[in-house]
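Input sequence (362 aa), recorded before submission:
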Amino acid sequence: MKKSLCFILLVPVLAVAAAKPAQSVAPVNPFKGNLGPAPVGGSFRMKDYIVWGGSVTKSDDGRYYMFATRWPRSGSWRSWVVSSEIVLASSDKAEGPYEFEQVVLPARGPGFWDGMSTLNPSIHRHNGKYILFYTGTTHDLEMLTETISRDTYETVWNSKRVGVAVADSLYGPWERMDRPILEPRPGKWDGAITSNPAPVVHEDGSVLLIYKSAPVPYPERNENRALHLGVATAPHILGPYTRMNEGKRLQIERAEDAHVEDPYIWQADGFYHMVAKIFGDNLTGEGDAGLYAFSRDGIRWSLAAEPKAYSRTVLFRDGTRRTYKRAERPFVLLQNGRPAYLFLAVAEPEWADVYNLVIPLN
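Predicted structure, token format:
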């Protein structure tokens, strides 16, 4: 553990489930009927890069800063696993457009758990420090071409782990840890990887963390390849992280067998709230759209009565509509504790353009 981060260990700890008193009335889906038209050009694009998965915070200077994943457009869709990096962009408005500022977590060598690729950023602020949760990969392969093979993709995919970095400024320098904060458990449902961190950092410094995993690593291609979510808690951001729900995977009532990924979690009014991408159309009426769920303790989750959160078809302010091939990695920017903007990583048909899109809520 880095000595400069020991301040975090001094924060008093409270039970995660007691962070706020529970209410008796289930929350209403905040996205239902509340998504406004998206601003034309209000996004984060980079000419020579695929841009994916943004997380936004407003700083003391009044500007909005987005942490996002990028990788070279010249590679294949698989290239993210070997060449992605987290970057910083900014805008004077929440809806953008966002302009590139700098690389945040570059490659630092195959000897590190996150040494060759960083992605899935989730930015938070606590006790005057900026806290960046993310996923990292590493490999010691001698040759990697821009268009990587399936075997290479699967080998490096198996190295995905969740970690955290800390800085005094959004511009860094970022202090990265020597170890991930959550390791896989061989032989369990989360035996292959840990990835896609979705944390809530409470006022007392404790953390509720949702993560994604699979039971077996590649190259096993069978029904056990299903991806699921788990939940862990920690007394502070550096851990130790303890699996909840007796180590079982997270279940969403009325969506027990659903394939859900890319959750974003926040806390308000005595509940935890989740927006996530769901595969299939049986719960939302649209394949690969978004769903909304809620929980009192962060462990037991329920779907809203009307669970659909967002569509892959987006209305813009000029009256046009666009249906994306993919709309993933949802992020919600809160204002006064309420969802104000929904950010999505979107891909045009045929992967013609891939970038981060923002949709205001009414």
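Checked by second reader. The chain has one domain: 16-360.
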